[in-house]
Amino acid sequence: MTSIIDQHASRTNAEFLIFTTSFCPYCTAATRLLDQVGRTWKEVNLDTEPETLNEIKRITEHRTVPIILDVTQERPVFIGGFDQLRPYLS
Description:
Blueprint: H1 4-9, E1 16-20, H2 25-36, E2 41-45, H3 50-60, E3 67-70, E4 77-80, H4 82-89
Parallel strand pairs: 1-2
Antiparallel strand pairs: 1-3, 3-4
């Protein structure tokens, strides 16, 4: 069975997949950081998809946005949120 994360990851050529909501300062900070270091990313805004947000929270056990995944591997790698992104990129 393919998860919602796998479905979104298979539809992008970007390096990172970021699940966000509007007016989220940490989501904005994450995308700016990725831009600064020259990494590609695809944003999936979950404002209109509460069921998807709940499913992603269940899969990752991460309760806040952004929910960031590295999709350059064979399977998406869950990184965490903004606080985990900077050390991951180092």
